[in-house]
Design goal:
Distance between the termini: 19 Å
Strand content: 15-25%
Low-confidence stretches: none
Shape: globular
Domain DUF5615: 4-98
Number of strands: 5
Radius of gyration: 13 Å
Pfam families: DUF5615
Structural class: alpha/beta
Helix content: 25-40%
Order of helices and strands: EHEHEHEHE
Number of helices: 4
Largest sheet: 5 strands, parallel
Protein name: DUF5615 domain-containing protein
Mean pLDDT: 94
CATH topology: Rossmann fold
Number of domains: 1
CATH class: Alpha Beta
CATH architecture: 3-Layer(aba) Sandwich
Keywords: Plasmid
């Protein structure tokens, strides 16, 4: 499976840099990149963009994202998935988990789910 990640604007940019340094073929975008949602885009619109473009959202927004996902699904929409980062994880732990997931995930394994990290 080819996984593509969209990093929430509140995730440090260096996460993408470090992921791509180790896994240059992985597609990792950040909110604010060209052709990605712009900074300040509402969470519901980010979910629609992820659905339309096939990206899994990586975020630390534990407060409102579950509500937005519930509303998104109630509207008969879907999303490839959301990975919720635990802020106590090191950057190395986050990178390792995202890489393992990218290499081992089944088609649609995380569809319509919020997966809380760490999962390993």
């Amino acid at each position: 499976m080819t996984i593509k990640y969209l990093l929430d604007e509140h995730i440090p940019l260096q996460l993408r840099t470090q992921i791509l340094r180790r896994y240059p073929n992985l597609e990792v975008w950040v909110i604010g990149d060209p052709n990605a949602p712009s900074k300040g885009t509402s969470d519901p619109d980010i979910l629609i963009w992820c659905e339309d473009n096939g990206f899994i959202l990586v975020t630390n927004n534990r407060k409102t994202m579950p509500i937005h996902l519930s509303d998104h699904l109630k509207n008969k929409r879907h999303i490839p998935g959301i990975f919720m980062i635990n802020e106590n994880m090191t950057m190395g732990q986050i990178i390792e988990e995202l890489m393992i997931i990218a290499e081992a995930a089944f088609l649609n394994e995380y569809q319509d789910l919020i997966t809380f990290m760490p999962i390993l």
